[in-house]
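Supplementary notes for students who missed Thursday's class. We covered one full example, reproduced here. Read the sequence, then the structure, then the short commentary at the end.
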Amino acid sequence: MLKSRRNWFIAIATFASLAAGNVAQTNSMPQAAPPADTAATLVVKGAVKQELQLTLADLKSMPRTKVTAKGHDGATHEYEGVALSAILAKAGAPQSGDLRGKSMPLCVVAEAGDGYRAVFSLAELDADFAAEMVLVADTADGKGIGADQGPLRLVVPGDKRQGRWVRMLKALSIVNTVQ
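Structure (token representation):
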């Protein structure tokens, strides 16, 4: 009972702080939209050697990959971007020979700007374990991905359904599923 009471108080405090924040925003001057480069920042954090904040320009300078896949609209599109495995390697996530033992329960949580999340095991993204290609795409059919889908999105051509195609991708967190 004490635990549920504590959770109730936490929920009330959280609601109150959110409501106070909304009131403060309502009474203040309108905020300018963040620069486009800031909006396209991809954060990589968690069980990595080096946390990253990659801008769209950073991603454009990395090795590029193209994949053809059927999108949510049912049509086939050509997506271009950076392989998720390359981004994880840049951050120093365990891979290949280091991906064993205590590293096996590591997962990648991909988070969208609207709070949507999808999960991948780190092993399924490693070429030594699986042939899964996951792309952090910034273009579709030669054009930038629109604001309703991007500017960054995950493309998982091997999935039969697009449930893990995270649009408006903003963060990748490498977490251990075993505590």
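Commentary. Strands lie at 42-46, 52-54, 65-70, 76-83, 106-112, 117-121, 135-140, 143-144, 153-155, 169-176. The radius of gyration is 19 Å. If anything here is unclear, bring it to office hours.
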